[in-house]
């Protein structure tokens, strides 16, 4: 085949990049979404615009009461916005498409007791696939795979109500994964977990994204896990998105963080202290980057 001149090849490549990035539509999109709880007279969401792209890992960072759970309840139609639109795969959520929307976007609630209903783990994880009208063989296959993914194989016959908080969260995640969603939304998945269980759950969440390309949106106020996980971070406060960007960009916004009752990751504070001691240190927010920066600083002093 005749090779195109370099200029044409370059143009072709640029056009490809344009087509794949600029024209890609968000898998979930919020346009000017507001929500008001009449009972507490609270404007929980205030004109939220959000574009979530397929395959990304998103962290919504916000203090207690920022509006994270309310936002999530809008993503698969549990709550309807008082104003604005929510589109899933380009379609506004409606009565007609709500079942499809709920198969596309699975939510793992903050409290697993709100989600776990059946007497055995197997029955609980099978609930979604059965509701989707899948045949017995497919349901069984999905339950087995979902329990494997959360490391709960062998727990099928046990009662979910006699599990630890961390294990209950895993059952809730398995229930959502068994529906094979494209987007998984997790409301504070590490809240109330010990460090090892939190790390385990974050590994499972990361695996969903890496192995299956699932788009992950999670909320947290744990600033230390965010840089280890997220491609894109949003800061929420008083029902508004106050900032967005990569973790590195976000954790430079000291004022925004402070106003939102958040802080930098602990590891970054070490670099602030080094700067205060007169060292030419860059602020690092992950252990690996911190190691590299410390080696650089040590080498420079030799
Ligand atoms: N069911 C409800 N009825 C009335 N007000 C509510 C209800 N749920 C939440 N709110 C109010 O809406 C605001 C946002 O709450 P939301 O639970 O969405 O915040 P959050 O960021 O998820 O908080 P947290 O980190 O504590 O879970 C708060 O002021 C809260 O008191």
TrEMBL record:
Residues covered by the ABC transporter domain: 28-263
Subcellular location, record wording: Cell membrane
CDD domains in alphabetical order: ABC_cobalt_CbiO_domain1
GO molecular function: ATP binding; ATP hydrolysis activity; ATPase-coupled transmembrane transporter activity
Membrane topology: Peripheral membrane protein
InterPro entries with a match to the protein in the record: AAA+_ATPase, ABC_transporter-like_ATP-bd, ABC_transporter-like_CS, ABC_transpr_CbiO/EcfA_su, Co_trans_ATP-bd, ECF_ABC_transporter_ATP-bd, P-loop_NTPase
This protein's UniProt keywords: ATP-binding, Cell membrane, Membrane, Nucleotide-binding, Translocase, Transport
Signal peptide start and end residues: none
Origin: domain of life: Archaea
One Gene Ontology CC term in the entry: ATP-binding cassette (ABC) transporter complex
Example GO biological process: cobalt ion transport
Cross-referenced Pfam families: ABC_tran
Reported function: Part of an ABC transporter complex. Responsible for energy coupling to the transport system. Probably part of an ABC transporter complex. Responsible for energy coupling to the transport system.
Similarity section: Belongs to the ABC transporter superfamily.
Protein name: ABC transporter ATP-binding protein
Organism of derivation: Methanolobus profundi
């Amino acid at each position: 085949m005749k090779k195109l001149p370099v200029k044409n090849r370059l143009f072709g490549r640029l056009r490809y990049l344009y087509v794949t990035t600029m024209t890609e539509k968000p898998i979930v999109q919020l346009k000017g979404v507001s929500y008001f709880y009449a009972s507490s007279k609270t404007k929980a969401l205030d004109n939220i615009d959000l574009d979530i792209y397929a395959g990304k890992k998103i962290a919504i960072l916000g203090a207690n009461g920022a509006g994270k759970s309310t936002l999530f309840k809008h993503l698969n139609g549990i709550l309807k916005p008082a104003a604005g639109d929510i589109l899933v795969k380009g379609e506004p959520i409606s009565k007609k498409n709500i079942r499809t929307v709920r198969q596309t976007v699975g939510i793992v609630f903050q409290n697993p007791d709100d989600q776990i209903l059946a007497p055995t783990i197997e029955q609980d994880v099978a609930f979604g696939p059965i509701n989707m009208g899948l045949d017995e063989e497919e349901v069984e296959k999905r339950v087995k795979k979902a329990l494997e993914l959360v490391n709960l194989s062998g727990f099928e016959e046990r009662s979910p109500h006699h599990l630890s908080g961390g294990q209950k969260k895993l059952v809730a995640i398995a229930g959502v994964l068994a529906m094979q969603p494209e987007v998984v939304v997790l409301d504070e998945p590490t809240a109330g977990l010990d460090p090892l269980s939190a790390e385990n759950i974050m590994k499972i969440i990361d695996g969903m994204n890496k192995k299956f390309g699932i788009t992950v949106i999670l909320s947290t106020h744990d600033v230390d896990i965010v840089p280890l996980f997220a491609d894109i971070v949003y800061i929420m406060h008083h029902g508004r998105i106050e900032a967005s960007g990569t973790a590195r960009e976000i954790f430079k916004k000291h004022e925004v963080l402070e106003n939102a009752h958040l802080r930098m990751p602990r590891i970054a504070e070490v670099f602030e202290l080094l700067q205060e001691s007169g060292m030419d240190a860059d602020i690092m927010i992950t252990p690996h980057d911190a190691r590299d920066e410390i080696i650089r600083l040590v080498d420079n002093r030799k």
